[in-house]
Amino acid sequence: MARGFQCRIQEIGNEQTCGQGSWIAISSIIRGYMNDLERFKAIVHFEKPDYVPIFGFPGAPGMAGGAMKKTHQRLVETGMPEYVGGCWEPGKDPNLESWYKYWGTTGPMVVDFFPGEKPEELKVEKRIEGEYEIIEDECGGIVRQVIDNDITYSMPEFVRYPVRDRSSWIVFRDKRTPGQRWPLEKIDEAAKKYDNRDRPLAVYGGSTWGGCLRSLLGPELASTILYDDPDWAREILQWHYWQFRTYLFPLIERLRPEAVVCGEDICYKSGMIISPKHFREFCSPYYQELCSLCRDCGVDMVAIDTDGNAMEFVKLAEECGINAIFPFEVKAGNDLFALRRKHPRFILMGWLEKEIINEGNGHLIRNEIMSKVPWLLERGGYFPNGDHGIQPDVTFENLCKFMTLLHEVCNNPEGEFPRIHPE
Fold first, then answer.
1. C-alpha–C-alpha distance, residues 68 and 354, integer Å
2. pTM, whole model, 2 decimals?
3. Residues 32-87: pLDDT tens digits?
4. Taking Cα atoms as reference points, which of 325, 309, 321 lies closest to residue 383?
5. Strands 347-352 vs 382-386: parallel, antiparallel or unpaired
6. SS3 string of 362-389?
7. Residue 15, exposed/middle/buried by CB under 10 A (0-12, 13-18, 19+)?
8. Rounded CA gap, 107 and 65, in Å?
9. Could you say which of 281, 286, 324, 407 would form a disulfide bridge with 303 (CB–CB 3.0 to 4.6 Å)?
10. What are phi and psi of 233, to 5 degrees?
11. Left, alpha or beta for 134 (phi > 0: left; psi -120 to 50: alpha)?
12. pLDDT at 29
């Protein structure tokens, strides 16, 4: 029997429980290798897959999920074949399968429908001022960004947020409230395409302070409102939570996804933006409810995407039932060695400095990978990847060096890219 020990097969779907507490899929034993779904399950359950995939998750795909258009063009200019997909630009299919095949990476399936009447989009006016594009929406929000920011890699300046007081909140709420949810029969029909999948399926799980209050009010007002007007903060949050319960929870119940991914961005360089006390008061109840549903539906991983230093946040997330965070940015001071010792069953992702594949940094690749990845892989529950996305200064040669070494360390045979070993 595979892996050298006797297995006791349970009649539960396509799974079997083995004598050492392992998770293995029967079909993988029969065919002699695992698929992406089985590898994902093995890793999140702290088992050993046939090889470790280079896995990109929505929000911060690292080196696994393509690049924005100008960065993709830079890769082509420095040597990547033009036929390789993974080019992100508005309104176009990025053709991620082509990127996955060439670079030997992968990612989850994601739900491509919203189970209800979508809210109307805010009307916007755009104008050019010098080197910048100014975007103003009908609620009064103003964004200043570089021209062609949709295809490049630059943080916009949020001059004014759409919600600034109760009157602007009411205007925003009324315009952005979705309509009637689909009947369960229609949801079931739309969901059938994801049945019998061989990749993990990821469903959006919502957000709390970071994805709701901070996005609407800006970080300053979203922080002070917790002290000055907590009732208003709860009103805004409950409006979001109602949407998640109404439109997302039925998807989780029907699809039984392997991953539920939440977008939070609740941390900055030095730690959490709000206090643990406020997180437990305003955010934890929703996450506890979400995680309870996910446990009932057999979800393997409930993850939060947050930038910044998440060292303190891991404990709070784990209290709610969250069992994964990404991408653990290096420059923010994250330490996955310390987190693994304190949280031995928490799923970790990322933590490889994204800038090592930029021009002039190729000499940093070997140490970055070898000083981190082998130790973390040995202890399980780790998806190695870059700590956010590919930057415009990348070179094709450096990405080849990064992928060559990371694939070797992960025993990963996939990919068509030329193997170039870093110095």
1. 15
2. 0.92
3. 789 999 999 999 999 999 999 999 998 899 999 999 999 999 999 999 999 999 99
4. 325
5. parallel
6. HHHHHHHHHCCHHHHHHHCCEEEEECCE
7. middle
8. 7
9. 324
10. -60, -45
11. beta
12. 66
pLDDT of residue 344: 98
Output the average pLDDT for the chain.
Answer: 93
pLDDT of residue 17: 41
Q: Which amino acid is at 309?
A: N
Q: What is the C-alpha separation between 153 and 158, in angstroms, rounded? A: 16
Q: Which residue's structure tokens are 């990127």? A: 99
Residue, of 155 and 356, whose pLDDT is higher: 356
* pLDDT > 80? residue 414: yes
Place of tokens 């990919």: 415
Residue 84: which residues within 8 A CB-CB, separation 6 or more? 75, 76, 98, 99, 102, 103
The reply to whether omega before 61 is within 30° of 0 (cis) is no
3-state DSSP of 113-131:
CCCECCCCCCCEEEEEECC
pLDDT, position 154: 87
CATH of region 54-116+174-409: 3.20.20.210
Give the pLDDT mean for 348-367.
Answer: 98
Where are the domains positioned within the chain? 2-32, 54-116+174-409, 124-162
Phi, psi of 51 (to 5 degrees): -155, 160
Alpha carbon distance 353, 337 (integer Å): 15
Kindly state the percentage of the chain with pLDDT values over 70: 93
Give me the residue label for tokens 């360390």: 409
User: Using H for helix, E for strand and C for coil, what is the string for 203-243?
Assistant: EECCCCHHHHHHHHHCHHHHHHHHHHCHHHHHHHHHHHHHH
Confidence at 153, pLDDT banded by 50, 70, 90: confident
- Chain centroid to Cα 241, Å, comes to 20
Categorise residue 118: left if φ over 0, alpha if ψ from -120 to 50, beta otherwise: beta
Mean pLDDT over residues 197-207, rounded?
Answer: 98
Q: What is the pLDDT of residue 24?
A: 60
Residue type, 243: Q
Element (H, E) at 189: helix 184-191
Eight-state DSSP code of residue 97? H
| Exposed/middle/buried for residue 121 (C-beta within 10 Å: 0-12, 13-18, 19+) | exposed
Burial of 34 from C-beta contacts in 10 A (0-12 / 13-18 / 19+): buried
